[in-house]
UniProtKB/TrEMBL annotation:
Taxonomic source organism: Nocardioides zhouii
InterPro entries: PspAB-like (IPR054383)
Protein name in the entry: Uncharacterized protein
Length: 190
């Protein structure tokens, strides 16, 4: 931060790095070998929908792009209890690279068309043989990841979340501020 920004008490917002999503497939290998977690094959992007024809056309373009992709046979759009839109892509659990490419395409298309302000997060869910689940969540505005592991209606497995953070810290930009590890109750795929 420069002197002028300091004097005006303004900071430059952190720039996201959507290419960090391409680090998830290697992190998936680490999760599988170290803790037995496998990708579920689904992933999602959460955003705040905008009104107007431009946003409707952009969302339609994203859906057409993903539906036309033979590797993404299942794409749905849902709205959660808080009014946020979730675009969910389901594919082959053995191909996390293809899933991350699809999630990157959704984020990039919304960003390029002027809707970056509405992007909230992307999530790739993982599950182990015991049925434990967590979502590896990418915070769009921070450019960082965190794990969200719900265990019930309003409870979460903090120990699992922290162990995932510690395991993946050498590979992914993990969110250091635990207050930003938002609970995403009823997230699709979890």
């Amino acid at each position: 931060m420069g002197l002028w920004e300091t004097m005006r008490a303004r900071t430059t917002p952190k720039r996201n790095d959507l290419d960090a999503l391409f680090l998830v497939p290697s992190a998936a290998i680490t999760l599988q070998t170290a803790q037995g977690f496998l990708p579920t094959g689904s992933g999602s992007v959460c955003y705040r929908s905008a009104t107007g024809a431009a946003f409707a056309q952009t969302q339609a373009d994203v859906l057409a792009l993903l539906d036309g992709d033979a590797d993404s046979p299942y794409v749905t759009v849902t709205t959660d209890d808080f009014g946020f839109t979730w675009l969910v892509v389901a594919g082959d659990p053995a191909d996390p690279s293809g899933l991350c490419t699809d999630l990157h395409a959704v984020n990039t298309t919304l960003e390029v068309n002027g809707f970056a302000g509405g992007l909230l997060c992307s999530m790739v869910p993982f599950v182990n043989a015991a049925g434990q689940r967590f979502g590896l969540t990418y915070l769009y505005k921070q450019g960082t990841f965190y794990a969200f592991a719900p265990t019930g209606e309003q409870s979460r497995d903090n120990l699992l979340e922290l162990s995932v953070r510690d395991l993946l810290a050498p590979e992914l930009p993990m969110e250091p501020d635990l207050q930003r590890w938002l609970a995403i109750w009823k997230a699709p795929g979890l």
